[in-house]
Amino acid sequence: GLGSLQLFPAALPGPELRSVFKYAPRWSLQDTVKIRDHLDAVEMGTTDDLGFHRSSFTAALSVFRNSSQENAYHSVYTIMGTPQDNSLEFVVWNGKLGMSFGGTRCASDLVVPKDKWVSVAFVYDAERREQAIYQDGALAKRCGGVDPYDGSGRVIWVGRSGDGIGTWRGRIGDVRVYSHSECGEGIEALSSLRAAHQSSARRLLGATAAAPSPPPLPAQPAQTTGRGG
Predict the structure, then answer these.
(1) Is 200 exposed, middle or buried (0-12, 13-18, 19+ CB in 10 A)?
(2) 3-class secondary-structure state, position 202
(3) How far apart are CA 67 and CA 95, in angstroms?
(4) What is the bridge-based pairing of β-strands 138-144 and 57-65?
(5) N or C terminus of the chain with fewer C-beta within 10 Å?
(6) pLDDT per residue over 93-126, tens digit each?
(7) Measured between alpha carbons, how far is 139 from 120 in angstroms, rounded to an integer?
């Protein structure tokens, strides 16, 4: 079926047309998902379809940690994961953001606050063999010498992983997956835009509600998402 539609007022030359598809999201979820257990998780697609397998990528989203999440060494909560084998994981571990390929972990030193929306991004540059984690637009951790993720055909979920890794507790929203490694300036711009939209929403509401949904960013092509158990 049709997953993305873009209209332009003029015919684009080849290089510009290729750039449009390069910088448009491969997958997006603008709604906010409240996750209490694995039944609330959202199936995204395979690592090949989403551009994670042996490629550069950027996964940008907003997360809201419930107060029930523990900041403890053995406490891990899944932002995105592959339940089949836990080979690709974006998590909050010991209260901090982390990402891993096949068990090779890159972990931030910054605690992710609870009971508030936080903008996060997980970036991998295949050419530089480098992982980067961003929190609210700022670089939280960079790890070098990391080979590309090699896991063809794994299914990725928002909010759940396999055995030994907990499901998310809280909310996740405004998820976007790109087939390139976004630069720091781009991540900062995305985070600032999210913050501005959230601030505008709070002013319109006239009061701060518990875990308000992050307003969607300006329209970009969205892929069809699936839900499952």
Answers:
(1) exposed
(2) helix
(3) 11
(4) unpaired
(5) N
(6) 999 999 999 778 999 999 999 999 999 999 999 9
(7) 10
